[in-house]
Each structure stands twice: as structure tokens, then as C-alpha cells.
Specification:
- The chain is an alpha/beta fold.
- The protein has a domain at 426-495.
- The protein has helices at residues 3-14, 18-21, 33-42, 48-59, 66-73, 78-96, 135-149, 166-178, 202-210, 225-231, 241-245, 247-253, 270-287, 309-312, 319-332, 346-352, 377-381, 393-402, 412-415, 420-428, 432-451, 454-473, 481-495, and strands at residues 99-109, 153-158, 181-182, 187-188, 192-196, 213-217, 259-262, 295-297, 337-340, 359-361, 406-408.
- An 8-stranded parallel beta barrel has the order 1-2-5-6-7-8-9-10, surrounded by 7 helices.
- The longest helix has 20 residues, at 432-451.
- Bound molecules: iron/sulfur cluster.
- Iron/sulfur cluster is lined by residues 112, 114, 116, 119, 121-122, 159-160, 238.
Length: 503
């Protein structure tokens, strides 16, 4: 068998119809394009009183109904939008406080059997130099990220290809967890490996669960059936809309508790896509005892070499609409984490983080093998898309601290079993934020001691003092005195070089 035949045989073995058809309703999936348009058209000119009632429902951390989200999306009055923005920020603070989580993407392989019209990694893009990291190279990348930059969380990214199948993904996850690098005062290591990869079977997802996958992230890209079929050409695995749409059902079935969904905004009408995300979240909640998406992502289509579709689309999302869609997602699925990435410029990130974002990346490189010093400029240009913000983690953390946000490197929730249904309950009742605050203080202390520049350390110290004082003020109403004492004990031990202490 030649390489192409081997690939074809592999492709034919990937999709298992019985693993998604069982969730469908008489052959129909849960995204009804006509119904979404009916909701959007049927909720035009919403009464301000109704909008304010909807905002109160979000503040009570309840997932909205499709009619309610459609009403928010139909607001025209800019003053009312100001109220919406204020409430989205308030909901974020209620669930997540002033905490923000940082991570880095690690691209392991850009081989791909698919041909998505908007992506530089697509099979027909001859300009792309194909590469897959060896396990040793993956470790080298992780050493830079954990030992030099100070990341504790990664999202590991793979194209869909037999060379980066579930076995390879599992091996890379294991390799990353093994990395432990001495630092100034302690050691650096990656404590949570999230995965962005193709939809997989229940069996493959069980294998990833066994090696300690964090969140499993797959974006539907677009929920609009016709657009989906057009941008994911026939004859590719990705052309199958339902295999992708139901991959989070399979993940939850396989015991992967934290699942993440997203849309590539710019492929179709943004209001429709926000509705699609809501329907997806509600479907998961209804089928899996209240477990909805752990995070939602909302990347905007960006130029990529060898992907001319990006210039042609008429659905590009303006900065103004981008802010609106972020606020409406925050209000529609109030408990979820929301990720804004370095695709966006520093200015835009500054504007949208307060609207409800909980995670962001920094020191980002998206070429294969890009974190090691041998990486050069020419390779940097051959990537999946172009970045809008290339600031270092140190710079980003300093700016966030100046804005009043504490960067949390906490990965305790996952390791203490605060995932799935448990985390959903904690998020909905605002209790997760309490654990998070303590762990944010501890992990921020670690990071300041191990990786911060003098300037960032100084600003960070001030913020950390303020945070400790805030916890102290909440004794005993929120924090028992013993917990506060334990916090201070852990804090001192971390200052003395101990690492990875958490609640
Ligand atoms: S978007 Fe993903 S599946 Fe599509 S071509 Fe790019 S890497 Fe492959």
C-alpha cells in the first residue's frame, strides 16, 4: 500500500456512525437552522424591561432560553448595550472573581487530511512545510514553556492525520507531564494538558482520559449546515457535520469531564453562531445531568497563508460586534469559562477581558517546534493563521495586574476532582471562585518568585497583598479562620521554595 492508500484506509476507519446516530432525534441533530432564524427574527425590537429581566436571570447564573439570547442579540439601542456590557462583567466577577488563567498553545503536528478552506494546514496547501514533533522534541518544547516562560497549562494542538492519531496524542500528553525543570527558586512543570484535536471515538477518548487529558476542545467552526458543508469539502473526514457536533457527547461518555466548544467567527452570521453555541450548551446540559461546556472559544477568522477564503467571506466580525458577541455568550451560558486568544490584538484583548473572559494565552508561538531557539522567521510565517498579540507572558501578567486581575496558574480543580458535575455546581453557586482565589494567590506567588521580571514582581507583590487582605476581611463569612491560617502557612512555604501546594 502506498502512503495515499494508507491514509485513505485510515480515514475510512475514523468515523463510527453508531456513536453519534444514537443521540440524534429521528435522524435530526439538535441544530435546526430554520428554528434559529425563527428565534432571531421573532425577537426583534425587544422591550428594554424584558432585556433587564433577562440580565437578572444571567446574574442568577442560569443558562438562557434561545428566545432570551435571541432578544439580547436583537438589541439596537447603544445605551442598552452599555447595560448589557456592565452585566456581563458583573456575571464574570460573580462566578470567577478577578482571576484570569493563562496558557500557551503547543502545536505538535501540522499534517492534516482535511481541506478546510480557511486554514493554512489544509491538505492542498502546498506552501505548508509539514512537520510532526518527535516525543523528545515535544519534551524540549515543554521544557521551554515550563522552565523558561513559566507556563503551567498548555493546549496541545494537532492536525487530523494518522501520524497524529490518538496514540500519538496520548504519548505526547504523557511526555509533557514528565517534564520537570529547575528554576530560580523551585521547579517548573506543566500541570494541565488540554487538547485541541479532531473529533475522536469513545475508545480513543478513553485512552486520553487515562493519560490525564485536561479539557478536550473541538470547535464546530460554524453551526450553519450549508456553510459547514461548503468550507469543509466533501471527501474529507471533517465534512461530516454530526461526527463533529456530537464529539463532546462521546467525550463525556468516555469520562472526559471537561469539554470545550467554540466557533470560528467569520464563516457565517455571528448572531446565528452565538445561538448555535447556546443550543450546544443546552443540549449537553440536558443529556449529561447539567454538565455544560467547561469553556467556550470565539476566535475570529484571521488571514493565513494559502487560505484565500478568508479574503472572500462576507461575514467578517467587526470589533464592535465582537464585543457584543462576547457579552451575549457570557450572559447566555453564565457559568462557562471564556477564552480570548493572541489572535486578537493587545488593544482588543484589553477591551474584551473585562466583559467576561477568563482565560488567555501569552508568549504564544504557533509554528511546529516554535518555542525552541532554533526556530526562525521564515518558519514563523508558515503557520495556521497570523497572531495579533505576540507579547510575553511577563508583559501580559504585568498589564493584567495593573488592570486589577490576578493571574492564576491553578490546576487544582482538576486534580482534586472538581470537574464535570461538581465544578458546574460550584460555578453556578459562586463557590468555585472561593477556592480559586486562594489557589490564585499561591500559584501567583510561585510564578513571581520563579519567572517574573523585577518590574512585574513589584506590581504583582502589591496585588497579592491586596488579595490576601481581601480574604482576611471575609473571615468568617466566606473563609473560616483555619483556612486563612492554612493559606498563610502554604504561602510562607512557597516563599521558601516548596511548590505545588493547593486547596
Ligand atoms: S482547520 Fe484543522 S482540520 Fe481543517 S485543515 Fe486546519 S488543521 Fe486540518
Amino acid at each position: 500500500m502506498n502512503v495515499l492508500e494508507k491514509e485513505k484506509t485510515w480515514m475510512d476507519s475514523v468515523i463510527k456512525e453508531d456513536q453519534y446516530e444514537k443521540y440524534m432525534d429521528n435522524g435530526k441533530d439538535f441544530i435546526d437552522d430554520d428554528e434559529i432564524w425563527e428565534k432571531l427574527n421573532g425577537n426583534k425590537n425587544p422591550d428594554p424591561k424584558r432585556i433587564r429581566d433577562i440580565l437578572q436571570k444571567s446574574l442568577a447564573i442560569q443558562t438562557l432560553e434561545p428566545d432570551e439570547t435571541a432578544a439580547l442579540l436583537n438589541v439596537k439601542d447603544e445605551r442598552l448595550w452599555e447595560e448589557i456590557f456592565e452585566m456581563s462583567a458583573k456575571v464574570k466577577r460573580k462566578v470567577y472573581d478577578n482571576r484570569i488563567v493563562t496558557f500557551a498553545p503547543l502545536y505538535c503536528s501540522n499534517y492534516c487530511v482535511n481541506n478546510c478552506l480557511y486554514c493554512g494546514f489544509r491538505r492542498e496547501n502546498q506552501k505548508e512545510k509539514r512537520r510532526r514533533l518527535t516525543i523528545d522534541e515535544v519534551k524540549e518544547e515543554a521544557k521551554v514553556l515550563a522552565g523558561k516562560i513559566g507556563h503551567k497549562r498548555l493546549i496541545v494542538v494537532y492536525g487530523e492525520h494518522p501520524l497524529s492519531d490518538a496514540r500519538y496524542i496520548a504519548d505526547t500528553i504523557k511526555a509533557i507531564y514528565e517534564v520537570k525543570v529547575p528554576t530560580k527558586n523551585g521547579y517548573g512543570q506543566i500541570r494541565r494538558v488540554n487538547v485541541n484535536a479532531a473529533p475522536m471515538s469513545v475508545e480513543d477518548l478513553r485512552m486520553l482520559k487515562e493519560v490525564g487529558i485536561g479539557t478536550y476542545q473541538v470547535f464546530q467552526e460554524t453551526y450553519h449546515h450549508q456553510t459547514y458543508a461548503r468550507v469543509h469539502p466533501e471527501g474529507t473526514i471533517k465534512h461530516n457535520y454530526q461526527w463533529r457536533l456530537y464529539c463532546m457527547h462521546r467525550a463525556l461518555e468516555a469520562g472526559v469531564d471537561d469539554v470545550a466548544i467554540g466557533v470560528l467567527f467569520g464563516l457565517y452570521d455571528w448572531r446565528f453562531e452565538v445561538m448555535g453555541l447556546l443550543y450546544h450548551a443546552r443540549e449537553l446540559e440536558s443529556k449529561f445531568d447539567g454538565i455544560g461546556p467547561h469553556t467556550i472559544s470565539f476566535p475570529r477568522l484571521m488571514p493565513a497563508l494559502g487560505a484565500p477564503f478568508v479574503q472572500e467571506t462576507k461575514y467578517k466580525v467587526s470589533d464592535e460586534d465582537f464585543k457584543k458577541l462576547i457579552a451575549v455568550i457570557r450572559l447566555s451560558v453564565p457559568y462557562t469559562g471564556m477564552i480570548v486568544t493572541a489572535r486578537e490584538s493587545a488593544d482588543i484583548r484589553r477591551e474584551v477581558i473585562p466583559l467576561g473572559c477568563t482565560q488567555t494565552d501569552a508568549s504564544t508561538r504557533i509554528g511546529i517546534g516554535a518555542y525552541r531557539e532554533s526556530y526562525n522567521r521564515q518558519e514563523a510565517e508558515r503557520q495556521q493563521f497570523l497572531l495579533g498579540d505576540t507579547r510575553s507572558l511577563d508583559e501580559l501578567i504585568r498589564e493584567l495586574a495593573q488592570m486589577g486581575y490576578i493571574t492564576s496558574f491553578c490546576t487544582a480543580g482538576y486534580r482534586c476532582g472538581r470537574t464535570g458535575q461538581r465544578i458546574m455546581k460550584l460555578l453556578r453557586t459562586g463557590k468555585e471562585g472561593q477556592f480559586c482565589k486562594l489557589n490564585a494567590i499561591l500559584t501567583f506567588r510561585e510564578w513571581l518568585d520563579d519567572f517574573a521580571s523585577e518590574e512585574t514582581k513589584e506590581i504583582g507583590e502589591r496585588l497579592i497583598k491586596k488579595e490576601i487582605e481581601e480574604v482576611k476581611q471575609k473571615i468568617p463569612s466566606v473563609y473560616p479562620r483555619e483556612i486563612f491560617q492554612e493559606l498563610i502557612g502554604y504561602y510562607e512555604r512557597i516563599k521558601d521554595g516548596e511548590r505545588d501546594l493547593y486547596f
